[in-house]
Write a structure and sequence with these properties.
mainly beta
């Protein structure tokens, strides 16, 4: 910010004037002005959250799920929303993507885990699910399963929020509208709970009691 200055005009020499006798009188003593009172409001320092921050993008390694297939998790987590892309590969190296399941919704961390030391409990809501075949062969395979969701095309995500897709462990949102999970942050690693065989974590009673061995790293 630049201050604006006003330039004063030049002083002119006054014309001579006759001598006048002046009787000096004491100068009045100026009364000092009262110092104004300034009200200062001090805001309290916000306390740190008791819960870990999981905001960021996190990705797991390509992890074998059978003798011929593997998977990878790719999370995008904001302060109150989460997204994950779960990609299944037709090989063990992650070079041949087969399908990608996308899930998103709101989430909240609710408190410390009662089952795992250092972990926390969370509710991960589900408001949208899509399933995308990553090749023409994958699209034909999905369409051959005679599910309520059909009409798959290569590299096009099909909404399965209301139908689910049982062959891939996906429930309709009317049956499972959230995952009741546990989580733990260790350095740059993010762990979630070990999922059950039926992939149903839709109630607090179905919350995992152990962490998964698979972790994701922030990138």
């Amino acid at each position: 910010m630049h201050a604006t200055c006003r330039q004063r005009g030049s002083l002119r020499n006054p014309a001579p004037s006759p001598t006048v006798a002046v009787t000096a009188s004491p100068a009045p003593v100026a009364t000092p002005a009262a110092t104004p009172t300034v009200a200062v409001t001090i805001s309290p320092v916000p306390s740190a959250s008791p819960f870990p921050s999981i905001v960021g993008k996190w990705k797991s390694a390509v992890t074998p799920s059978s003798e011929t297939q593997s998977f990878q998790l790719d999370f995008d987590i904001q302060s109150s929303t989460w997204k994950v892309d779960y990609t299944v590969f037709g090989d063990l190296q992650g070079a041949v993507p087969f399908v990608t399941i996308h899930i998103e919704g709101p989430y909240e961390i609710t408190g410390p885990s009662t089952a795992v030391a250092g972990a926390f409990e969370g509710r991960f809501g589900i408001t949208k699910k899509t399933l995308m075949p990553r090749s023409t062969y994958a699209a034909e395979y999905l369409n051959s399963l005679n599910q309520a969701a059909t009409g798959f095309k290569a590299d096009e995500a099909l909404d399965i929020t209301s139908t689910g897709f049982a062959p891939f462990g996906q429930y309709p949102v009317s049956e499972v509208d959230a995952d009741y999970d546990i989580l733990k942050v260790e350095g740059d690693k993010l762990y979630f709970g070990a999922r059950p065989d039926d992939n149903n974590m839709g109630t607090p009673e179905k919350r995992p009691t152990a962490l998964s061995e698979v972790f994701s790293v922030k990138y």
